[in-house]
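for the writeup, i need someone to sanity check this before i put it in the appendix. the sequnce is what the collaborator sent (i think, or maybe the updated version? ugh). structure was predicted straight from it, no edits. if anything looks off just tell me and ill rerun, i have time this weekend
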Amino acid sequence: MNTFPPYITPEKLDHFIEQAFAEDVGDGDHSSLAIVPKDAVQTAVLKVKDNGIIAGIELAKYIFEKVDPTFELEFLVEDGQQVQFGNEAFRITGKAQRILTCERLVLNCMQRMSGIATYANEMMQLVKGTKAKILDTRKTTPNFRMFEKWAVKIGGAENHRFGLFDMVMLKDNHVDFCGSITKAVQQTKSYLAQNHLDLKIEVETRNLAEVEEALAVGVDIIMLDNFSLEEMAKAVKLIDHRVKTEASGSITKETVRSIAETGVDYISSGAIIHSARNFDLSLKANVIY
């Protein structure tokens, strides 16, 4: 049975697959239709040509089963498993034409997801032993966000809000357009009450004065954006566990450990998605002549 995070539903998956094939296949996979007999049955193997965390196994299974329920699938690894060059991830046997038509969609998804899962896992390893949790951001690929955030989870990090609808985040532009943190938070609380919405409020701060203002007006999470390590440590001490803290801004593998050691609860990193390198995978025909 497929297990997906709550933001991924069969309806969303089906829509994605439909749109992906409309983009890729159009009026037909003419390369395969031209040379592969309609009823030919073959086997293909997904070969791992990289080292890291595999992701997208459950998605590949869903895609294959959606395209042809008669496919015979043998999965040799699971999502989140450490793999290395030379491993085999799965074997698929079925109508050769349909395997070829699915090939690029499955590879595109798995290569992207595995790259993100690997990056996220590396970041989590770097903060191991601290209380900090690595979060993703909304810096995602349009219409592929649900899979990128799924990959973050597979890699061992955590998801921040999924979109603009499931949490209030008052960033610097919101505050500047509104006039002040106090005014922005007060108007947000009124808006949420009037619309019967139960959403957490996070506010971005740029200095200790704004941290004090955010504490005074009352929020759930205070973001410490581009603080120096010294100022971040002061902010964490000032907040003193009254609300959750999140470090943000130019987070890299080189700096993440030092940031975690300031005592922040969360470290949000757009890089774990937008800067992840695609994983090297290849689907190869398993034909013996």
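The mean pLDDT is 96. The first strand starts at residue 41 and ends at 48.
thx in advance!!
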